[in-house]
Sequence to fold (630 residues):
Amino acid sequence: MPDSTSTSGTRHDEAVRALASVPRVPGAPKPDPILVVDGVKRSFGGLTAVDVQHVEIQRGAITALVGPNGAGKTTFFNLLTGFDTPDTGQWLFDGKDLAGMPAYKVARLGMIRTFQLTKALSKMTVIDNMRLGAKNQIGERMIPAILGLWKSQEVAVTEKADELLARFKLFEKRADFAGSLSGGQRKLLEMARALMTDPTMVMLDEPMAGVNPALTQSLLEHIKDLREQGMTVLFVEHDMDVVRDISDWVIVMAQGSVIAEGPPDEVMRDEAVITAYLGGHHDKALTASGVSYTEEASQ
Amino acid sequence: MDWSYILAVMVTSAFGLQAIVFGLAAIGINIQFGYTGLLNFGQAAFMAVGGYSVAVVVVEFGWSFWVGVPIGIIAAILLALLLGIPTLRLRADYLAIVTIAAAEIIRLILRSVTFKELFGGSDGRQAFADGFFALSPYPDDAAISIGPAVINDQQLWTYTVGWLLVALALLITWLLVRSPWGRVVKGIREDEDAVRSLGKNVFAYKMQALVLGGVFGALAGFITAIGAQNVNPDVFKTDATFFAYAILILGGAARVFGPLLGTIIFWAVFQGTDVFLREGIDAGLPIISLMDGTQAAVLRVMLVGLGIMLLMIYRPQGILGDRRELALDAR
Fold:
């Protein structure tokens, strides 16, 4: 396990250096983008949930996707990973067009996601959850499964799963049902399971939600570890301390669009970002906004 | 009261034709519902497709019985594809609605006047299993008597093949559910998005489960057609599907041997209560003799309903099920 206890891992330095000259504007081009998104739009009825003109994600960096509730972060995640279909738009992952591709094919290409509400399969054991993640298992095809041609591959898969479980400190739990794990352990399991697929890009939807403080630090280290192993990480997070601690770059969404980009410290000072989080009228009397609500309602 | 007669009926029912037929149907549902979480409420349609295939092929086209068997299996596969393609991408309840409706549509087509030439309307089709019995290794005078019940050579051959098919279906189930294939479908049962996010083609797995379970349903159809020497649309009513579900839940869903245990107990008890009530009426037992035979026949169906309710309340995992798997639902 590489030493990644400090923020200044080698890959971190590389990412910071590569991103240093990137202009701090929404949709800024990156020196080595792994994901390039163009004109992705999704509306539910009259509500435009996501309308992203252009955004690029730097390869090998940890990018945070932040924004107030309802900004469209999770919808954007769903669109990128094929769990939802946009009205328009295209996006290239490692040069491959993912538009219209079903979620399982996106995952096979190496873009793996986790979920805001953890999807550990609670009625399966921890080790079975892990084994499920492994790619290209011959025993997952019906005829070879019946003929029992999967035994030797299963040994290799289990070995790999055990290594990951040890790394994520879940090895002692390997025979337990995943449902018996705590919220934080489930997050760890979900992340470890995602790693079974050997992803190139990991998309984490609120990895810290529902995790007790004792596990937060360990989870953060694991995310940094992904970068040290050469993976690209894009994650949604609300906790600004977490964002500041681990991300190399921050993309801010509000009302479906990207409104700001930049390194964490700079972004958090951005006027547009503060406005998006706290509202534009925070210096005016409360009655002023009360009037505007009634105006909206009367329309 | 002739207790030895009641006992003999229970034993012959436990291992008789119905036990085989509904055992096979329940094994199919176990793959679909038990392991993959697909609510197929149209298993009766798969049984009908199997039964009618062998009957129509022989009676109408004059082909060999053994041509009917692959035709029945292919028809069941096509039916599964037909039902699955539009519904398996949707939420699970849609499959339930579509399958129960499709099963009724198929039954009504089979009994319709329009297709009477082909399917025989409400009379169904008879006398088509000679090709099956021709292969029987048992001598014509072979017979087994269990108390007052006698099993003749034809029944013996039907039961032999039937239980071999049950064994084969159980073996395939066992091999599949312990394999990585089984792991994927169990994952789908719990949360298909999680499985999808790991790069598995969820739709394809659901379709495979639906097809395999449907083929087991068709095997059940073959056996019921052979055993009764008759196919009749009203054998394949929705009741048939729910009997199979009752058997599966009784024995334990998502357990390889759940349907086997379920079908043996179900038919022993179901037919046992029937003769018990009839014997009780004849013997003038108190309360029971207030009914007549027709009422007794209805009462036992009510008792099945009551039994399923009690089972769902007090032992939802069935006889062989694992309580832990169910208790873990709540966080």
